[in-house]
Every structure is written in structure tokens, then in C-alpha cells.
Amino acid sequence: MANAKTTVSITAPYDRATELKAFDQKKCGVQGLVDAGIRHVPRIFINSPDTIPKTSTHFELPVIDLGSTDRASTVEKIRVASENMGFFQVVSHGIPLKVMSETLEGVRKFHEQDVEMKERFYTRDTSKTVVYNSNFNLYTSSAANWRDTFFTFMAPSPPLLEELPEVCRDIQIEYSNQVMKLGGLLFSLISETLGLKPSYLGDIDCDKGLVFAGHCYPACPQPNLTMGATKHSDDGFLTVLLQDEIGGLQMLHQDQWVDVQPTPGALVINIGDLLQMISNDKLKSVEHRVLANEKGPRVSVACFFTTSLAPSTKVYGPIKELISDDNPPRYRETTVHDYAHHAYSKGAKGVDGGRRFLHLKL
């Protein structure tokens, strides 16, 4: 009987646009639904069954010690991971465990505070200093994700202290500053993996923009019906992910979904679309997703190295030092702004679920 009801809930006609608008206007997000005691996933969140397979295979994501004195070995490990998997984890990264735990706690407090406090930041205007909402692509996706997010551009022009949410402003600033330092090191090492001078990617401003995104995946009463985040790749240069112990992140590796298990004290690093593009496909931006879970809330912080939708005229294309007669450029040039605008307009996925940067292919 339960299965029959589920089938009806997916296939029965309904005014989706009206329900999306009603959810959005409440400004309470998914967490608000959970706080209200909801026991069934609303139809706007229900995915087609074939889009949410839960199977995965065991996989050990490389853990790279950035404190190693053998820089050549570190560069080689990053090269192998970036070319073959697009994901790796780092330890001895310089960010204190206390800062990491307080950052997760700050994000948790933001999402669990009273709706009246959060709704001041609720908006779909990405020009705002703090953007809090549920599903940036709520009105364009085929099914909403079981996730709420707030994000802020922390660099190159950080916001004023009073513009940030009081409940987490101090730790948000501290963590962002720490990630910027880490980014400088990572881009230096990745430059070397490409056979370039250590300062190359920094010199072309890959490490100058930072977006801080605090995600909350509330406990889901029917995790088999929805996703925490549907499959997507990240549109920036590089992503630094801090996740709690609950897990649920999966990456696509050799056409199979594999779990990215939380490692205490480690940060997850993944290559973004723009870094794959300027490396002329040498580095891989890999699709990933987050499963919905009966446990929760799962909290994570994704820091994206990108200037995203900020106005820019700087043009990026395949790095000339990596181009040759045997390895011609594979992409047209673009600005970060134009690519981010394209990616944002397509939602988490590209056209028909494809990769979003394929429109740049030569």
C-alpha cells in the first residue's frame, strides 16, 4: 500500500509552479519543513526513481599530507589524483581543528536559528552580500534538493562585519581567511603538476575569488525519494570542502558512484570546471552528488575559488604553455562571469543533464 501511495505522489498531476512558489514564500527552507514535523517528502522534492540510485562501491580517496617535506612527492600525488579522479583529501593543511569544528557549528547554528532571524537573508538576488535560500535552481530543476544554503563572496572584496549573520560571522571570516591561505598553497602545487612555475595559477588570479557556502541537509523522512544534491560538477577553479561525520557525498569514478567518506581532520579538494578547461582536460572536474539521509542535519562548508557572477573582463582559455601541435586547444575562451552565468542558468546540471562546459568545446 505504501508503494502505491508513493507512485501516486510521483505521477499524479499537480500545479508544481504554485507549490514551488508557496514553499519559496515561506522563507523557511527544508529545515522549516522538518521543524514543522513533516513526515512525507513534498512532491516538489520527489525525484524520478531512475535518477536516485543509491548503490555505490568502496573506494579509498587519496589522503595527501601537505606537511610533507618531500614536495616532489606531494606534487606527484596531487597530479595523479587530479588527472585520474578529480578529488583528493588533504591533511596537515594548516587550518586548526578548532577552527574547522567551530565553522561547522556556526553553519549549523545559522540554519537552526529561528526563521525570523534567517528570513532577513532569504533572497534569490545573487548580488546581495549574504544569499540564503533553498535550492538556487528551485524554479528550473526537475526536482528540488533536500538542502538549504547560505553563501557569501568573501574575496576579493570581503563584506563588512555587520553585513554577515551574527550567529556565525566571526568564524566565517576566520575560516575564509584560512582557506585563502590554503588556496595559495594548493594552486602553487597544482601549477607544478602542470609543469608550470609555482606562481602561475596565482599570477592569473585563480586564487583571488572565494565563495563561502554553508550547506544544511536536514534529516529526511523518506530519503529514497529525493537527493541532498543531484549530480553536478563545480563551475569554479577549485573547491575546498569541510564536511561533518555524517557523510553522504559521492563522486563519479569510472562510471560508478563511490563514497567520499569523512576523514577526521581532512579537507576534501576537487577540481572545478574552469581548471579542467584551462588545463585543456589534463585535470578532471568530476561530477558528484549528496544522498539524502534519515540522519541529520548533515552540515558542510564548500569554499569555491571563483569570482563567479562578479563583473570581470579577464579572459580564460587553455593555458598556452600546455598547447602544442599534438595537443591543440579544446575550448574557446571565456570570462569567469560568463561561464558562471551560463552554469547558473542551467542549474546544477547542464543541458539534458550534460556537462555545463561543453558549449565551450572547439
Automatic annotation (TrEMBL):
The keyword Transmembrane does not apply. Residues 207-308 form the Fe2OG dioxygenase domain. GO terms for molecular function: dioxygenase activity; L-ascorbic acid binding; metal ion binding; oxidoreductase activity, acting on paired donors, with incorporation or reduction of molecular oxygen. Keywords: Iron, Metal-binding, Oxidoreductase, Vitamin C. Gene3D superfamilies: B-lactam Antibiotic, Isopenicillin N Synthase, Chain. Pfam families: 2OG-FeII_Oxy, DIOX_N. InterPro entries: DIOX_N, IPNS-like_FE2OG_OXY, IPNS-like_sf, Oxoglu/Fe-dep_dioxygenase_dom. Belongs to the iron/ascorbate-dependent oxidoreductase family. This is Fe2OG dioxygenase domain-containing protein. It comes from Deinandra increscens subsp. villosa. The lineage of its organism: Eukaryota, Viridiplantae, Streptophyta, Embryophyta, Tracheophyta.
